[in-house]
Specification:
The chain has 256 residues and is α+β, with helices and mostly antiparallel strands. The chain has helices at residues 3-20, 48-59, 77-84, 104-114, 129-139, 167-178, 215-223, 243-254, and strands spanning 40-43, 64-68, 91-94, 99-101, 158-162, 183-187, 230-233, 238-241. The chain has one domain (3-188, 228-254): Glutaredoxin. Strands 4-3-1-2-6-5-7-8 form an eight-stranded mixed β-sheet, sandwiched between helices.
């Protein structure tokens, strides 16, 4: 089976995962100011509880430094245990509030209250249905983003522009997790309904111009388009669009 066909099949599976998750992590609810000190999230992509925290980060337009901690990983798990006293994920380190937090529901409440200045919306609260749907959504991906693979550590963390429910961005995040590659997650959720739809086929026929002053507008001014995922690797002075190209780059550059 060709790499192209495998990637298309993975993309379909990722779309199914987003659908089961009700496409949470698509829209920005409120654009919170970025905190002075970066939020640090120890997590792994396949966890439904980590997914819930990433959905909240997208809803708040918040960036975070990601420290992947997949099963069998050796790069950040010891660091997480030293900081938190146990291995439990997600684990959020918020230096602004001088907090180390576990439990997705507590982390989500903290993010909305501290940075969104609002109570956690009902769609982002833990309940009977949401955890089940999140678990099913993660199960669809058949364990991708769960186990560590041998890799070479980068000297500098990578940068990924993404939003949680983006099917193509998920494929890249899974690979970053498996290879234990640290990265800054720059969330670029949809800021209004006019932005719904793929980058090249949005709902409105007019040329797309993001809302001035927002993170998407800044990205558009720099790159001439808003297409995700987008990866920058400062170690190789490289910037890439298209999930298939990014994954190929990660494999050739960092897989051992």
């Amino acid at each position: 089976m060709t790499h192209s066909l495998l990637h298309q099949m993975a993309s379909l599976g990722s779309m199914a995962s987003s659908t089961l998750g009700l496409w949470r992590g698509t829209m920005v609810l409120t654009a919170a100011p970025q905190p002075p000190k970066a939020l640090v999230l120890y997590e792994f992509e396949a966890s439904p509880y980590c997914r819930a925290v990433r959905e909240a980060l997208t809803a708040l337009h918040l960036d975070a430094e990601i420290r992947p901690c997949p099963q069998g990983g050796t790069r950040f798990r010891a660091e997480a245990q030293r900081l938190g006293g146990k291995l439990q994920f997600p684990m959020l380190v918020d230096h602004n509030a001088e907090k180390v937090m576990f439990e997705s529901s507590a982390i989500i409440d903290h993010l909305f209250l501290t940075y969104g200045r609002m109570d956690t919306p009902s769609a982002y609260r833990s309940g009977t249905i949401k955890p089940l749907l999140s678990t099913l959504a993660s199960a669809v991906r058949a364990g991708r983003g769960w186990k560590a693979r041998p890799s070479r550590a980068p000297s500098k963390a990578l940068h990924l522009w993404s939003f949680e429910s983006s099917p193509y961005s998920r494929l890249v995040r899974e690979r970053l997790c498996e290879l234990e590659l640290p990265y800054t997650l720059h969330n670029l959720g949809k800021e209004n309904w006019k932005e719904l739809g793929p980058a090249m086929r949005r709902i409105l026929p007019n040329p797309y111009v993001p809302q001035p002053g927002g993170k998407r507008h800044a990205f558009w001014q720099k790159h001439g388009r808003v297409q995700l995922p987008y990866l920058e690797d400062p170690n190789q002075d490289t910037g890439l669009f298209e999930s298939a190209r990014i994954i190929e780059f990660l494999e050739s550059s960092y897989a051992a």
